[in-house]
Design brief:
alpha/beta; Metallo-beta-lactamase, Chain A; 6-stranded mixed sheet
Length: 201
């Protein structure tokens, strides 16, 4: 049976953080449930199975606990960002959540019969990852249209971001990129921008 994947998105909160609902054959994966995401998720996801976090920043994980508790589904988060879910390091009043699965660098899991890979691209945060589902790459705050994630936050690392850009430039597959903020793009479209950022950092 071929997998039919459809993707819905909605920007959440003051920072317009994209929450994604990935529907695979009538069941859903929630990516980055940000501020106030619960009602939209309830309306658009009837059979969710998991929450995936691209990284631990508050605007991407704000509704983790609320959504996880309501639907009784597990949270997957990059292991190096787990501390942000518990400690609210930016003092934003983020509701605490606890990941059920700490994802290692480039770890592959299988949900709903599809291999999902947490590609590790540190720099914006220690555990910052882009999540591969089929032809799609949910890039969190690593790649945006014409831009990359900031590296001037606490726990950011400019040298790690350079390594991450070099790593993604080595990928041959032309992923459709769904970023944490703004509209979708493709890896092919972003290659020149990424090379320019490599020289700028």
């Amino acid at each position: 049976m071929s997998n039919e994947i459809t993707i819905k998105s909605r920007p959440m909160g003051d920072y317009g953080t994209n929450c994604y609902i990935v529907d695979i054959n009538g069941k859903q994966i929630i990516i980055d449930p940000g501020v106030g995401a619960i009602n939209w998720i309830k309306e658009n996801a009837k059979h969710p199975v998991a929450i995936l976090n691209t990284h631990g920043h508050f605007d991407h994980v704000w509704s983790n606990n609320e959504v996880s508790t309501h639907f009784k589904i597990p949270i997957y988060c990059p292991k190096d960002d787990l501390f942000m879910l518990q400690n609210d390091p930016f003092g934003q009043g983020t509701p605490k959540s606890k990941a059920n699965f700490a994802m290692k660098s480039d770890e592959k899991i299988n949900l709903l019969g599809i291999d999902i890979i947490f590609h590790h691209f540190g720099g914006h945060t220690p555990g910052c990852s882009a999540i591969e589902i089929g032809e799609n790459l949910f890039s969190g705050d690593f790649i945006f249209q014409g831009s990359i994630g900031r590296v001037d936050f606490p726990f950011s690392d400019k040298e790690e971001m350079k390594k991450s850009i070099k790593k993604v430039l080595s990928y041959k597959k032309n992923f459709i990129i769904y970023p944490g903020h703004g509209g979708k793009t493709t890896l092919e479209k972003e290659r020149n921008s990424l090379k320019a950022w490599l020289n700028y950092l």
